[in-house]
Design a protein that fits this description.
single chain; alpha/beta; 4-stranded parallel β-sheet; 4 strands
Amino acid sequence: MRDYERETTLRVEYIRSCLAAAHAAGIVFGNSGGKDCALVGILCKRACDNTVSVMMPCSSKQNYGQDLDDARALCEKFGIENRTVDLTAVKEAHLAALAAAGNVTADAEKNLAPRLRMASLYTLAQSENRLVAGTGNRSERHLGYFTKHGDGAFDFNPIADLTVREVYEFLAYFDAPKSIREKAPSAGLFEGQTDEQEMGITYAEVDAYLLGEATPPPETKEKIDRMHSVSAHKRAAPNLYEE
């Protein structure tokens, strides 16, 4: 069995070292009401009392219902300061402004909300001398299932080494709200969206593959490997010309 007490201590020490190195006074993280941001919020609050959760609903009805309820439940249980920034009107205005410059594709529009959220987090962080905590897990990162310069941007990430299964196990250790632990993983990009449905593979298959427990069927392995390969640019540092 994993030593969660030791892991918590090490991750808290890591977070505190990031704050000290940046001479930052606090932390801000995006709270979607999902599993990953829940674990990040718990760890950050243990490391720094001056931790702020920001709920940022944007267009999707799901963002205004269960997601907000779960985000609030997390903050209430663990004593985390919680704020709300409604980005729906901002997204609509941004799309209207972009229409004058060119056609915005459906995929590009889906990724606009995560980028608006990250811009909001960094604006608050800079204004209040905070660091932005990343909330992506190992499974998502391997697949490239995140938005470049959206949820893929952060100052530090205390759960980047954890698969989806391990995130759920860690949340159970902390006795995080059951509603968060039991709902299907979703980025809330559009109505009814779930990660596994959109990808066409399950996190159980991905996690077992990454942890060396089982080799998925050939077609699933090919899909995982392909997603990892085509998303390499998301995980790499920006390409810079050097003479």
